[in-house]
Amino acid sequence: MLVLLFFIIAFHITSAALLFIATIDNAWWVGEDFFADVWKICINNTNCTEISEEFVDYSILRAVQASMIFSTILCCIAFFIFLLQLFRLKQGERFLLTATIQLMSCLCVMIGASIYTDRRQDVHSKNEEYYLLTSEGSYGYSYILAWVSFSFTLISSLMYMILRKRK
Q1: How large a percentage of the chain has pLDDT more than 70?
Q2: 35 within some domain
Q3: What's the domain count of the chain?
């Protein structure tokens, strides 16, 4: 049981780390001379522009930012609740509160990454230089980590639903 508990804790910490990296790191959309995320666009590693109202459909990126931040916060809260429930639950009870919060985190990641996937082409600068440069590119590793963290948080929430407190 101790090995299973260690595996679940390590899996949850890995999920939280992936969410932090996907939310913070600047590699959601990458190209030859630029990289961008939901916070800023950097051209030639020197000219970084914070994404603001000058971008068309700025509200879309705000929704992605909010859902990724909310997902990260929920994942951390779920971990702390799991630790509290580990010492407070009676033997044989399930970690349903932790599973529910982790599932909400999973849904927030899915919503954020799905919005970004669907509306990526709509988010461009009114500045013609940025638009032409960033139109050609591909999804970066932070975007991929967001989808990987979605699957990790989903699996983690299912593990919490199944897990019973045993001796």
Answers
A1: 84
A2: no
A3: 1
Is 63 inside a domain boundary?
Answer: yes
Distance CA 94, CA 49 (A): 47
Q: Confirm whether 46 is domain-assigned.
A: no
Range of the domain at 105: 2-27+55-123+139-162
Q: Could you tell me if 142 and 37 are in contact, meaning their C-beta atoms sit under 8 angstroms apart?
A: yes
Evaluate whether 35 touches 26 at the Cβ level (below 8 Å).
Answer: yes
The stretches of the chain forming alpha helices (DSSP H) are 2-24, 58-88, 96-119, 128-134, 141-162
Q: Is residue 97 part of a domain?
A: yes
For the chain, what is the radius of gyration of the CA atoms? 19
Strand order in the sheet with 29-30: 47-50, 40-43, 34-36, 29-30, 138-139
pLDDT digits (tens, 9 = 90+) for 114-129: 998 887 765 555 555 5
